[in-house]
Design brief:
The chain is an alpha+beta fold. The protein has helices at 4-9, 19-32, 38-45, 51-63, 105-115, 132-138, 159-162, 203-213, 252-263, 287-297, and strands spanning 35-36, 76-81, 86-90, 121-126, 148-150, 157-158, 187-188, 193-194, 197-198, 224-230, 235-239, 271-279, 302-308. It is 31% helix and 19% strand.
């Protein structure tokens, strides 16, 4: 659980935010997690702060959502969506699992924005310069050619400058990039009865199916989504986000955990249910890695459903 009092106490650049601005931000984050809607962003900016300074001042807030038990190095990221809203991201690590399963702050901010329906990013402020992995991940998004990146004490730098001679979707013949709307029309292969419950009315399964249908997998077509339910009844979802370079792809569980922690202010210990829905017969699978990472943070058993395109 993120302690918002700790967020409020975190040291911030003295020149960036005054007490009234901090009060507005703290109240908004307490309501909606690491998210500031466009109207509120404009309200804060009208009090005399630029968007770049605001995003930089919010980085310490974003860092408070980080869960890095291996490195103890907290990364915070703040993304400006095409809508004008701001989305926080932070890094997540999983003890006992491969480091390749770590979530980078820039990935988390992007996944967070996607969960709100954003179709692109304008700017990204990060607590440290993005690693090569993140630069490659960001190059997949719809607005990569116009995206600028800001680090503390730096000036906005185009992503294309940070990743020259880049390899991306167009090199593999893909024209619809990450953050473009996706709708695959998958349906569950079977609506089985499990543990005495009728899966046809299972909200967690349905949420995972919706996430799979919204996933981005133009290279493997291994569409997948995860839904996580907490003890208060809330359901958080994540969609698979594939990358032209393959390795920077983000799993649906990782995206769902970002939503759980940053959007929901929830902790791993609050999980009571987890469902993976993935396309049947695909050449790639999320099953083993989803089970492994879930077991590293929770005793909840993963439920799995296969889905396929609708019969024509």
């Amino acid at each position: 659980m993120v302690d918002m009092k700790s967020v409020a106490r975190h040291e911030r650049p003295a020149h960036a935010l005054h007490a009234e601005q901090r009060g507005v931000i703290d109240a908004a984050l307490a309501r909606a997690g690491g998210y500031l809607p466009a109207a509120l962003v404009q309200e804060i900016m009208s009090s005399g702060i630029s968007i770049d300074d605001l995003m930089s001042a919010l980085i310490p807030y974003a860092q408070e959502y980080a869960i890095p038990p291996i490195s103890s190095f907290k990364v915070g990221a703040v993304a400006l969506g095409s809508s004008g809203s701001l989305y926080f991201g932070a890094n997540f690590e999983y003890v006992g699992e491969a480091l390749s399963m770590s979530v980078h702050g820039e990935q988390a901010a992007t996944a967070h924005a996607i969960s709100y329906g954003e179709t692109g990013l304008q700017k990204l402020a990060v607590s440290a310069a993005p690693c090569g992995y993140c630069r490659q991940f960001l190059y997949e998004i719809t607005t990569a050619s116009a995206l600028s990146v800001l680090v503390p004490k730096g000036t906005p730098t185009p992503l294309t400058t940070l990743l020259p001679a880049a390899f991306g979707p167009s090199d593999l013949g893909v024209t619809a990039a990450l953050m473009s709307p996706q709708a695959h029309g998958l349906v569950l292969a079977e609506r089985a009865t499990e543990a005495g419950c009728d899966a046809s009315s299972d909200e967690v399964v349905d949420a995972a199916l919706a996430a799979a249908n919204a996933s981005y997998a133009p290279y493997s077509f291994a569409y997948a989504g995860v839904a996580l339910k907490t003890k208060d009844g809330a359901v958080y979802t994540g969609s698979y986000a594939e990358n032209a370079a393959y390795n920077p792809s983000m799993s649906p569980l990782e995206a769902a955990l970002v939503s759980l922690v940053i959007r929901g202010h929830a902790s791993y210990g609050e999980l009571v249910d987890a469902v993976l829905v993935q396309a049947s017969g695909a050449k790639a699978s999320q099953l083993d890695v989803t089970r492994a990472v879930l077991r590293s943070i929770s005793n909840v058993e993963l439920r799995v459903r296969q889905a396929s395109p609708p019969t024509r």
